[in-house]
């Protein structure tokens, strides 16, 4: 039961990946716009905006996917430990 719930949560996490990348790219674009607001040239301010959005999207998506993969390995580790305990109990009987 618990393992099935983890699978559902992980699936929802993978489905939410584009939204997480979008949200972090929006934050990065906002920070880039704030940094570029002091520049007199609108072209360079736009470059700051795009660079901030791209950097934010890349870092946010990488962190999100890293977290999801770590959760996957964690779930597999728990499953292996549970199977090892079951095998040890069955050998003792």
Could you state the order of secondary-structure elements as H and E?
HHH
**What is the rounded Rg?**
22 Å
Report, as a whole number of angstroms, the end-to-end distance. 26 Å
The number of helices is 3
Helix content: over 70%
Q: SS-based structural class?
A: mainly alpha
Low confidence ranges: none
Strand tally is 0
Q: Could you tell me the strand content as a percent range? A: under 5%
Shape annotation = rod-shaped
Return the average pLDDT rounded to an integer.
81
Largest sheet: none
Number of spatially distinct domains: 1
List keywords for this structure.
single chain, 93 residues, mainly alpha
Sum this structure up briefly.
The chain has 93 residues and is mainly alpha-helical. It has one domain.
Describe the structure.
By secondary structure, the protein is mostly helical. It has one domain. The chain is 91% helix and 0% strand. Helix 1 packs antiparallel against helix 3 and helix 2 runs antiparallel to helix 3. It starts with a helix and ends with a helix.
What's the structural blueprint in terms of helices and strands?
Layout: H1 2-15, H2 17-36, H3 42-92
Helix pairs in contact: 1-3, 2-3
